[in-house]
Design goal:
The protein is an alpha+beta fold and 409 residues long.
Length: 409
């Protein structure tokens, strides 16, 4: 949480940190400005002091909603610097020089936010070489802001819960949309007699997302049959929706304005499920239920990946534990942290570098699945969980997990 930032800065021996870049696609900026509707800017935080937002004067009123002390960007007169230097890199270095001097920033400065890798590399090297009293610092892996974001308070958890509720409404309405269609020759047809396709279902889902006042920056997965057996296939638009085939619906919208994500997956077959699908789905369902009962605070996250692999292997399925390159059976990690990005801390991969431990405040997904593309099916069940300050695990996702959706013939 934000109150942990000073401790994390001290652990990295940081005297200050700067978050820069546009707001869009920049969770670190959104987090530091408390969701204020600015297009971008610079957040400067010295260790032991409150953060300051440097922003354009045309956004001063939106910036005020951040609750931070606001510094007007015009104070540094960047246009005049550009005219003087006649070079954007030199002008940018001078801008940082003036900004750091004005805010009393010196020493080891952590640099965070989102920008093009090449331009960022050039700028940070120039700053390190030309600003005598500044040492530029960066994290290759998990940043202090990543760690702070990973633990959510009750207000943040409630926002994710509400995003989950709206997401589950979309799933329910999508199921109702499918059920409203006529069945002809084991396929769904529209009122005019034309086949109902995956692409048409995609259109309806996008409409429902907008109706719920959510955003869909990452897309969603609505894939059938063999496509459902490839975990991140979004589905083939031309495919006609048919009875008895697995449909994976993995939907991960966020609050409007760049806020918190939900991430929910359900798998269903319309009308009926073939015996091999029913058997595999029962294995996924029982694995998911076992994990929900097993999660405990202060346990290594990768422990649950091992549990998942052991469970599926005991049921005769191949897993990444015995073959890291397998494309059949259980082929991915159990879950991931969830918040202002779809994927954040904690991580569940069973690799030596993963030392993540479940902590109070963590929001994460639990999404075991089985995939057999050559047999024409795949399946996954995913809920979002939050660990409260007392260490109790709460399921933020309320939606049934039945495999078969009844259809009118």
């Amino acid at each position: 949480m934000k109150q942990d930032l000073d401790r994390m800065m001290e652990e990295r021996e940081l005297d200050a940190m700067l978050v820069a870049g546009k707001m869009h696609g920049n969770p670190a900026m959104y987090y530091m400005v408390n969701g204020a509707a600015v297009s971008g800017g610079y957040v400067v935080k010295k260790r032991g002091e409150a953060a300051v937002l440097v922003c354009s004067p045309i956004e001063r009123e939106e910036a005020a909603a951040s609750g931070l002390t606001i510094v007007n960007m015009s104070k540094y007169d960047f246009v005049s610097i550009l005219r003087e230097k006649k070079d954007r890199l030199a002008a940018s270095v001078e801008l940082y020089r003036r900004m750091f001097a004005d805010l009393g920033v010196s020493g080891r400065v952590g640099m965070y936010g989102m920008t093009d890798q090449g331009s960022g590399w050039i700028l940070l090297n120039a700053l390190n070489e030309q600003l005598a009293d500044i040492e530029i610092y960066g994290d290759f892996d998990v940043t202090p802001i990543d760690l702070a974001r990973a633990t959510k308070d009750a207000t943040e958890a409630d926002r994710i819960r509400e995003a989950c509720r709206r997401t589950c409404d979309i799933i329910a309405q999508t199921v109702a949309f499918l059920q409203s269609h006529r069945v002809q020759d084991e396929r769904l047809v529209q009122a005019d007699g034309t086949p109902l396709t995956i692409g048409r279902a995609h259109q309806e889902i996008r409409r429902l997302i907008a109706e719920q006042e959510l955003e869909d920056p990452e897309g969603f997965i609505f894939a059938m049959g063999r496509d459902a057996g490839v975990p991140h296939s979004k589905g083939t638009p031309e495919d006609v929706i048919a009875l008895g085939k697995t449909i994976i619906f993995d939907i991960f919208p966020r609050e409007a304005g760049g806020g918190y994500f939900a991430d929910v997956t359900r798998t269903f077959c319309l009308g009926y499920a073939p015996p091999e699908v029913e058997k595999a789905y029962q294995d996924v369902y029982e694995c998911h239920t076992t994990l929900l009962d097993a999660f405990k605070v202060r346990t290594e996250a990768k422990h649950y990946q091992r549990m998942t692999c052991e469970f599926f292997e005991s049921r005769g399925h191949p897993t990444v534990a015995t073959d890291s390159k397998t494309e059949a059976g259980y082929v991915h990690s159990l879950g991931h942290g969830l918040g202002l990005a779809v994927h954040e801390e904690p991580r569940f991969g069973d690799v030596p570098s993963n030392t993540d431990v479940l902590q109070p405040g963590h929001v994460f997904t639990c999404e075991p699945g089985l995939y057999y593309p050559d047999q024409g099916f795949g399946m996954r069940i995913e809920d979002d969980l939050w660990i409260d300050p007392d260490g109790t695990v709460h399921n933020l996702t309320e939606f049934p997990k039945e495999l078969v959706v009844k259809m009118k013939r």
